[in-house]
Amino acid sequence: MATTDSLAAHPGGGFNPPVPTTRGGPDYGRFIDAVRTLQDHARAADAPDEVITRAADLIEAVSDLLAPYDADEWNSPSGRRMDLPNRGNILQVPMHLAPTDDGRVAGHAQFRRYHLGRNGAVHGGAVGLLFDTVLGYTAYKLSGSRAQRTARLEVNFRKIVPIECELQVDAGIERIDGRKIYVASRLSDGDTVLAESEALFVKLLPGQP
User: Fold this and answer.
1) Residue of 190, 42, 202, 197 lying closest to 127 (CA atoms)
2) Fewest CB within a 10 Å sphere: which of 76, 88, 91, 122?
3) Considering the entire predicted model, what is its pTM?
């Protein structure tokens, strides 16, 4: 929930960047990985009824443990742990990205069992989520713009995207036209292109949320 201080600092206007934090301590990354693994088990487990009952009891107990500490987005460590992959944001597909010497962005990603659609393939919406993250990072990192929003995102699916495999991502800026940043990316398994994406990001004006 929002606190009085956070509402005063973030009244609604402006795209406020996350303030780095170390809150959550040295086990916050482990905590995020444990939740991801729990999501995988929830997607995969075919356990006896009594095991599911016991698991539900334990998960509810953990939720009860954490509930008194719910914070708004400005105070939660999620998304603000710059020392962790994806800044400790559990929503995003696990990946590592970095600018390259030739002015692009490259890295690797791995979809988990949680992202399964059917027949060993990643759900298409999860592929879109990956591209939005990759291209948003690319627009920010390579353009120098502090704040922009996704205006359009297009995905072309070339091959089945497999779960639980380390895949390669590559992205770059196509052009910049005023406030418009045009970016493109591809997702590959070795030399095989699995999906491609093009997006338009628009730089925000002062005060735009």
Assistant:
1) 197
2) 91
3) 0.90
